[in-house]
Amino acid sequence: MATDNRIHFWRKNAKVPGSIQPVYGAQHPPLDPRIHRAFPKDTPKANNLKSKKASSFHEFARSTNDAWDIDDEEDEDFLAPIHPSSLPPTLHSTHQVPPLPPQQPINTTTEPDTGPADRLAPPTAEVRLQHEEDRDCGQINGRVVVKSSSEALLNTNTVRSTLQKQKSLPVRPIIPLVARISDQNSSGAPIMTVRDKSRLDKFKYLLSCPNTDLEELRKHSWSGIPREVRPITWRLLSGYLPVNMERRDLVLKRKRDEYFGFIEQYYHSRTDETYKDTYRQIHIDIPRTNPLIPLFQQPAVQEVFERILFIWAIRHPASGYVQGINDLVTPFFVVFLSEFVEEDVENFDVASLPLDTQRNIEADSFWCMTKLLDGIQDNYTFAQPGIQNKVKALEELVSRIDEDIHNYFKRYEVEYLQFAFRWMNNLLMRELPLRCTIRLWDTYQAEQEGFSHFHLYVCAAFLIEWRKEILSMVDFQGLLMLLQNLPTIHWGNEEVGLLLAEAYRLKYMFADAPNHYKR
């Protein structure tokens, strides 16, 4: 008995710190009395017809029924059918509405026309909805007992409106995080149109030329690269592969052998006192890399990432390994893996590939990541001055293009560094699904300074994309939670394309006019 009292004390006592209080949210809303039956023991007494206004949040919480307040005894009452005798006396009223006949049609001439959804709804659905409400309100002596006839009409309209909203919302399938990355549109369906086939043929023609025209290849890559030719296109645009076709095989063999020469020369030193801390940090960060994607939780893949990051760190002592660099390997690894995988990359077993193929993917990922980091290495040197400068530039840019958002941040004391540091450090990889990151990097590779310069305008466009949601927040915590957890899980090629178009517009307006940053 003492144990039960102690449990209830910590559950219900609002005056004790740590007490479990009702928490409301999208996944745990308060119980709706129109949908859920009232609990007999929690219903108000007859002499409490006019409840006092809650003078504090704790009093409001105690006076409100919630799913968290249900204990074991109440579960039985919740599941048990309601008998007429269990209805509280406060629900009795002088307004008593007779029940509708079984198939009585609804008189649509007396109700306002609320839109096409009402006109399309069959009469039987209206009758069924009314009967469900009759059941929830309870029947006594064949009569429906409610507080008033106006409340009954209000309840009917509310539930009907909710059903109409649910029917009108588009149902979007869950898009895989990795699979069929380049073919994803916003609906998640891979579509090969005539235009897509024409673009693919153009890419194949450019790549088959004895000397690939990089400017022409960049121009076509800006709006996205077809999946079939993305691996070789990324190698060319990153500067890893020569434009001359005859030299490509020779260069690839030489660079791949050079990488595995680094492995033989340096990788054994990961346990030495000099590099022990570096390797330890890499070893900790690798499992955190895209934890929701099974591909990156495979031991073989994690070993590949450890070797790539460790060799890069000891060959670049000015910066060494910095948290966030581990994310930058994943797009290259997935793209080069997709060259050998037809099915979903997300769940593919890398260990099933031939050893030579695994080694080639690893070496190509290392060299392309190295080329990328060569252009933004000041992001990862001591004190990370590159990121500091980019965040400051973002703040100045936003103050010019959307003064409302800028002043809103100042009002609630939100610093750009608190959310934009990660945007610059991880190149928006933590904000977007991996399929969107790969599409974004198509354009970054096509831009002359995509990762270092154009990324600034993408971040500005990305921030403005959430203007409505930002201005709806009413406190510092809400703003920061939104900016660090932006809902982009359903984004696809369409959304990324619009984001890049807006970023290009901002770049066109501000890149060559630095005085526009200032007032």
TrEMBL record:
Gene3D superfamilies: putative rabgap domain of human tbc1 domain family member 14 like domains (1.10.8.270), Ypt/Rab-GAP domain of gyp1p, domain 1 (1.10.10.750), Ypt/Rab-GAP domain of gyp1p, domain 3 (1.10.472.80). Pfam families: RabGAP-TBC. InterPro entries: Rab-GAP-TBC_dom, Rab-GAP_TBC_sf. SUPFAM superfamilies: Ypt/Rab-GAP domain of gyp1p (SSF47923). GO terms for molecular function: 14-3-3 protein binding; GTPase activator activity. Keywords: GTPase activation, Phosphoprotein. Residues 79-121 are annotated as: Disordered. The keyword Lyase does not apply. Residues 224-448 form the Rab-GAP TBC domain. May act as a GTPase-activating protein for Rab family protein(s). This is TBC1 domain family member 22B. It comes from Salmo trutta. The lineage of its organism: Eukaryota, Metazoa, Chordata, Craniata, Vertebrata.
